[in-house]
Design brief:
single chain, alpha+beta, Cytochrome p450, 5-stranded mixed sheet, two-stranded antiparallel sheet, 53% helix, binds protoporphyrin IX containing FE
């Protein structure tokens, strides 16, 4: 009887597999779907896209199927775009159709479709326009964003002076400063570096990014309904998201209590004022939930990205002392020692500008981008892409496109310099992605990178105990690009 049941089950399974397989083949042919590996029922292409080796898996599929291919994450089809031409054709030439966001179900479970990152349509338009205006300094307090960054850079120098030339891991130093800049913009004030609440918040943020990089979490984000019952570190994601949200809700309450509508101090004040103004407008998206999630978005998206890039930048400088020396010479020539670096210096510092661009290209910290979705059925490169299909713009394949960068896998500031040493733009420089969804914090991040990078080199000489040739620039993780932990010493100049 038991044997009979098993045979029957096996038969059913084989039959459903055959039905699924032949249905999939004929749909694919009929609909002119892009090439890609054959998926299995329920688990999709998990055998080809390994959660513990995502980037390598996508790289292999790119080699096999070319610039545009389709994989299945579970039952969900994902269009993967590779190389400058395909990504540009989608995100820039067909910006409206490819400009929607697809949010993994694990995130949706917690944030819904609120805030800037996860929303679409009219909600996204209103929130994005408002946030961009606020970040560009319209109507927010007396101090400019540049001044807020300059102030933080000086606090960082003071803190670095305390290391007195001893070796240290720079991670916490960069994340405290970068996070403080966002805190100053969204919450109105920076925190003291030793503030316990601040350190707890940073620990949460750090934990959140680390958790996101684990293979369990990749599974959780895509299959929350199953994975919420499987024990593992991914269950901490929900807990950390909850704590981060509670922190923002508390800040929002404090702001509402002390709000002066004539003198907004920060992003939250501006949002509260807008909410009040649009109270009677039923189409307004300025709600409490959108305030909390948008603030969280800026906070999460704006901390680890820039500080991770800075960590990469200084590791690269330790490996290439001759490049560091040229940057320092340019700093001495253009800025000198008597004043702090300012954004307007950048245009007079082509070599430094090229080095920072090359750091971002080489560090490649968002290798698969952030998932998009198509808003309608579209014919793309001869294939039919159905409405709602999830899209991964694989930014790593743009930043390392051999058609645009002559040494794609080497660190070479020459990628951004012409034969006269002037700064040279490159259209395939897309660390912030491209099109309608391009990073909202691009301007802020570029200012932060320039001002903090130059302020540190203006004030310190860097050393490390390792020989440059022994410094390993490869990523510490397999699902994204993160520099390996390192120690450096900073000696006052
Ligand atoms: C080096 C630093 C940074 C890098 C490399 C980076 C990269 C990215 C990328 C690749 C995206 C996805 C764009 C897309 O969907 O195609 C993105 C989106 C976003 N980033 Fe950044 N980012 C950085 C810093 C920041 C900062 C400082 C902020 C905050 C102020 C920020 C806020 C956002 C937001 C809100 C979005 C979502 C935009 C939308 O959906 O409309 N980012 N970023």
């Amino acid at each position: 009887m038991v044997l009979g049941d098993s045979v029957f089950l096996l038969l059913i399974f084989s039959l459903s597999f055959l039905v699924f397989f032949s249905a999939w083949r004929s749909i694919k042919k009929w609909k002119k779907m892009p090439p890609g590996p054959t998926p299995l029922p329920f688990i999709g292409n998990i055998l080809q896209v390994k959660p513990n080796d995502m980037l390598k898996s996508f790289g292999k599929l790119h080699k096999k199927y070319g610039p545009v291919y389709m994989v299945y994450l579970g039952a969900r089809p994902v269009l993967v775009l590779n190389g400058y031409d395909a990504v540009k054709e989608a995100l820039i030439d067909n910006a409206d159709v490819f400009g929607a966001r697809s949010t993994p179900p694990g995130f949706k479970k917690f944030f819904g479709e609120y805030g800037i990152i996860s929303s679409n349509g009219e909600r996204w338009k209103q929130l994005r326009r408002f946030s961009l205006m606020t970040l560009r300094n319209f109507g927010m307090g007396k101090r400019s964003i540049e001044e807020r960054i300059q102030e933080e850079a000086q606090f960082l120098v003071k803190e670095l002076n305390k290391t007195k030339g001893s070796p240290f891991d720079p991670t916490l130093y960069f994340s405290r400063s970068i996070s403080n800049i966002i805190c100053s913009i969204v919450f109105g004030d920076r925190f003291d570096y030793q503030d316990e609440k601040f350190l707890k918040l940073l620990k949460l943020l750090n934990e959140f990014s680390k958790l996101l990089d684990s293979p369990f979490s990749q599974l959780f984000l895509n299959f929350p309904r199953i994975m919420q019952y499987v024990p593992g570190p991914h269950l901490r994601i929900l807990e950390t998201m909850k704590l981060l949200k509670e922190f923002v809700i508390e800040k929002k309450k404090m702001h509402a209590e002390s709000l002066d509508p004539n003198c907004p101090r920060d992003f939250i004040d501006c949002f509260l004022i807008k909410m009040e103004k649009e109270k009677q407008n039923s189409a307004s998206e300025f709600s409490e939930e959108n305030l909390v999630v948008s603030t969280l978005n800026l906070f999460i998206a704006g901390t680890d990205t820039t500080s991770r890039t800075l960590r990469y930048a200084f590791l690269i400088l330790l490996k290439y002392p001759e490049i560091t020396e040229k940057v320092v010479q340019e700093i001495d020539l253009v800025i000198g020692q008597d004043r702090a670096p300012a954004v307007e210096d950048r245009s007079k510092m082509p070599y430094t500008d090229a080095v920072i661009h090359e750091v971002q290209r080489f560090a490649d910290i968002a290798p698969l981008g952030v998932p998009h979705a198509v808003t309608q059925d579209i014919e793309f490169r001869g294939y039919t892409i159905p409405k709602g299909t999830m899209v991964f713009p694989a930014l790593t394949t743009v930043l390392k496109d051999p058609g645009w960068f002559k040494n794609p896998y080497n660190f070479d500031p020459g990628h951004f310099l012409d034969e006269n040493g002037a700064f040279k733009k490159n259209d395939a420089f897309m660390p912030f992605s491209a099109g309608k969804r391009i990073c909202l914090g691009e301007g802020l991040a570029r200012m932060e990178l320039f001002l903090i990078f130059t302020t540190i080199l203006q004030n310190f000489t860097l050393t490390t105990t390792k020989e440059p040739k022994d410094i390993d620039l490869s990523s510490a993780l397999s699902a994204s690009h993160v520099p390996r932990p390192y120690q450096l010493s900073m000696h006052p100049r």
